[in-house]
Amino acid sequence: MSALLQATDLRRRFGGLMAVCDVSIEVRPGEIMGLIGPNGAGKTTFFNLLTGMTRADSGTVVFDGHDVTRAKPEAIARLGLARTFQNIRLFGGLTLMDNVRVAGRVQARHGLLSGLCFTPGSRREDEAVTEKAFDLLRLVGLEDRADHLAASLPYGDRRRLEIARALALSPRLLLLDEPAAGLNPSEKLGLADFIRAIKERFDLTVLLIEHNVPMVMGLCDRVMVLNFGQMIAVGAPEDVQRDPGVIEAYLGGDAHGAA
Amino acid sequence: MSGFFENYGFLIVTIVQQALLGLSIYFPLMAGQLSLASIGFYSLGGYVAAVMGTHPALAPLREALGFWMFPLEWLGALVLSVILGIAVGYPALRLRGIYLALATVAFVQVVNVAVLNMPIAGGAVGIFGIPQAFESRLDYIWFFGPLFLLALFLVWRIGNMGRGLAFFAVREDELAAGAMGVAVTGNKVTAFVLGCALAGVTGAMSAPFLNTWNARQGTFDASVTCLAYVLIGGSRSIWGPLCGAALLVSLPELLRPLKDSRMILNGIVLVAACVYLPQGIMGGLAALRARLSGRGGAA
């Protein structure tokens, strides 16, 4: 089976810091893949490289048969690669509904002129997008606040809205950057089930960054580990958990001696 | 009543004309772009109309078209504004916030120096004796009024249709907008060019209205005044630019009895508006309405 996403020798340097160093990885259709690593390991930079927000110094990214290494973020999003952000980036001054509708218009064919002329096509398109957005808000349980401003939401609800917004792109691959950060324990448990549910329902492939190791181990089919920009392990969660290199990266160089 | 219009007709038409310039700044602001370039396009649009209205080589065309020469002037200004807007917009809109504002101020200065040195634009004297469209200045409301309604319709419709959301998404968060499939640069340039086109056509209508046209129409001061219409009136309401223009254009007239001290009071009103109405007059009214209807409790 061919990979949905294939990164080859991806490299990005910020001044003297090698943020991502020759990382190659395949994400297979239908899997949930975890990306873990200590703080500053280059996880978010890796996401930014995949989504066109940071340019790679070298290497290639192929998504669904398209070379997207030099593509703009909006072009990559339109191909069906959606993401959330570690530090949640909602459109704060827009309503929940409009946040989702922005993304829901990704395949829209009716533009400015069509809308200004009130063409029936643009009206139907707006209605369809609105309906889909409402369904997504209901999915994440925010439909009763559809007309509130996104900035007014509490933290946990913002994360859910951001996922709803990403799903509105009708993505094939969903990148989640620390979806459990800042959630309380019961919310975290619910999140793992939620991710599994949306994966089934929307036929998604998921790549997620997460610090919560139990959640990663329970949720992911495969896990890749970054440390100082380099991929030090990839494989099934239980194998990665036993990998000496991973243990050393997480617990420090002396862990073996002290244990 | 007729006495009222005789005295204040020019003022009312000027308010609508200036509100159009305010709206031309409002368009790029919808996509979060603070541009002061409008006055440059206003100036150029005015020169297009002034040259088309007075150049001897075009006399046969004017005779043939009669009144229809004016719409042709608007069209000329529109085409020039759109082309120049795209040419300026693509490089300038790579800059953000204050840097974009500075770049657009520079554009206004370039236009100013360029027209001062172009023989066809009449140098420092400018172009005068521009043919009038109407006998009375008041009748120019038939130029500015429909254009104003059209601009209001555009702002309203963009705010209410799905396609318009892309502008607001770019305003709220460029990075997230890109990640959600919104063409960031394209939307910025579109919003910017809409503003340029409106300013250009307003200029083309203003040249006959003001009878003469010179480089003083496109100064930095005028740019800042236009921005003040939007900021004082309210940058998140479609009525903001009209409100701001009405206040700023009429204030010096209303305070005329105070003679020389009126400009001081004018300044005090502006400072007070900035301090006490940070969201502009329309923003202040909206907050007041929310407080009255919210039974005092809602934040």
UniProtKB/TrEMBL annotation, chain A:
* Pfam families tied to this protein: ABC_tran, BCA_ABC_TP_C
SUPFAM superfamilies under this entry? Answer: P-loop containing nucleoside triphosphate hydrolases
Output the SMART domains linked to this UniProt entry. Answer: AAA (SM00382)
Provide the Gene Ontology terms for cellular component.
plasma membrane
InterPro entries according to UniProt:
AAA+_ATPase (IPR003593), ABC_AA/LPS_Transport (IPR051120), ABC_transporter-like_ATP-bd (IPR003439), BCA_ABC_TP_C (IPR032823), P-loop_NTPase (IPR027417)
Name a GO molecular-function annotation. ATP hydrolysis activity
Query: What range(s) does the ABC transporter domain occupy?
Result: 5-253
What's in the keyword line of the UniProt record? ATP-binding, Nucleotide-binding, Transport
State the name under which the record lists this protein.
ABC-type branched-chain amino acid transport system, ATPase component
Report the source organism: Solidesulfovibrio magneticus str. Maddingley MBC34
UniProtKB/TrEMBL annotation, chain B:
Which parts pass through the membrane? 7-27, 39-58, 70-92, 98-128, 140-159, 189-210, 222-251, 263-288
Asked if the record carries the keyword Magnesium, the reply is: no
Q: Which UniProt keywords apply?
A: Cell membrane, Membrane, Transmembrane, Transmembrane helix
Topology relative to the membrane = Multi-pass membrane protein
GO cellular component terms, semicolon-separated: plasma membrane
The record's annotation in Pfam families points to: BPD_transp_2 (PF02653)
Q: Does the keyword Ribonucleoprotein apply?
A: no
Q: Which InterPro entries match?
A: ABC_transp_permease, LivM-like
Principal location: membrane
Query: Which PANTHER family does this UniProt record tie to the protein?
Result: HIGH-AFFINITY BRANCHED-CHAIN AMINO ACID TRANSPORT PROTEIN BRAE, HIGH-AFFINITY BRANCHED-CHAIN AMINO ACID TRANSPORT SYSTEM PERMEASE
Name of the protein in question: ABC-type branched-chain amino acid transport system, permease component
Originating species: Solidesulfovibrio magneticus str. Maddingley MBC34
